[in-house]
Design goal:
The chain is built from five helices and seven strands. With 210 residues, the protein is an alpha+beta fold. The longest helix is centred in the last third of the chain and has 31 residues, at 173-203. The chain is globular.
Length: 210
């Protein structure tokens, strides 16, 4: 993202504008724990839900070693997962950092369960591995929320028409695949959220009710 390069790399770090250096800076953003590269730990993937099986001490405690522990029994060969938004030191990311932010900063589409956040409208919901929707930022107005998400859904359909017209000779194949993967994820999640609102309305309750 240009914000990372222009603000963090150029202005704060005083980094060069050489494309190679800029690419290295973005790799650090993708792989580092804040601004610190930690061997082995940087190789851990993100996944929430029952997959998230580690905890760690904070990275910026001066003079204190960094410790990473498992939080549940782990079988030989089982993967260790961290979290980019639900860790103990993740701050307010729980309600401000979702699938779109992870895709922007780390370059991948979050596996299920997914946390979707539309901050402009303070809308936040999670899609489970079973594709159930639960709301952690409950809509203030169900009708407005429905209209907003319906607009997003319509926008995704129009965007797909443009994506299908892209000249693949000017865009790396892998990059286009990731864009289409993210597009599908947004469309699917928003459709599930709309269905959740429709079902809640039919049952006479709000999305946060149990």
């Amino acid at each position: 993202p240009t914000e990372w390069i222009e603000k963090d790399w150029h202005q704060i770090c005083g980094g060069s504008k050489d494309p190679f250096d800029e690419n290295v800076a973005l790799i650090v953003v993708q792989q580092a724990w804040d601004s610190i590269m930690i061997p082995i730990y940087d190789m851990m993937h993100h996944r929430n839900g029952h997959w998230f099986n580690t905890e760690s001490t904070k990275v910026h405690k001066e003079g204190k070693p960094i410790k990473v522990r498992t939080t549940q029994p782990v079988e030989a060969g089982e993967e260790l997962y961290t979290s980019h938004n639900l860790c103990d030191s993740c701050g307010d990311r729980e309600k401000t950092f979702g699938v779109g932010d992870i895709f922007r900063d780390y370059g991948f589409v979050e596996s299920y369960p997914q946390r979707w956040i539309f901050q402009s409208n303070t809308i936040g919901f999670e899609v489970s591995e079973d594709r159930d929707v639960s709301w952690f930022l409950e809509p203030d107005d169900d009708e407005e929320t429905y209209d907003f998400l319906d607009d997003v859904n319509s926008g995704m359909k129009l965007a797909l028409l443009d994506l299908n017209k892209i000249d693949q000779s000017i865009l790396p194949k892998k990059e286009l695949e990731m864009i289409l993967q993210y597009h599908h994820a947004v469309s699917h999640a928003v459709s599930l959220a709309l269905l959740s609102l429709e079902m809640a309305e039919g049952e006479g309750c709000t999305p946060g009710d149990k």
